[in-house]
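Still learning folds. Look over my entry:

…
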Amino acid sequence: MTTLVLIFVFLVSFFSMELITWAVHKYVMHGFLWVLHQDHHENRHDRFEKNDLFAVLFALPTACMIIFGLHLHLEILSTIGFAVFTYGIAYFLLHDVIFHKRFSFLRIKPKHPYLIRLIRAHVAHHSIKEKENAVSMGFLYAGKKYAL
């Protein structure tokens, strides 16, 4: 498979993760697995929360795609796995480090309008403490109403 095709597959996979993230957040995390996500919407004092189990849950199929793709010489599978992994790293950095400031030694204050828009959407999402009526379920996209 050509490098150009693999780059295309990577980009499509990476940006498709936003749609998947939106659906999983809305229908799984705010749906039948609310019991694991609920503590993420509460004021917490512990280092870890039940919601962190989602990271493990999502990492397993991603790791399998990468490992099996590399082992079986299925470039497309490993490329998709690396795209999902990259999305996960972006999610971790923005969500846990910047949005929720889970690492006290890393105090980053974004100034870019795009990041501020994402933060405002995330704050709006967390302003609703219950399972229903949540807003802004995505991660890398925030509607125009969250712009400065």
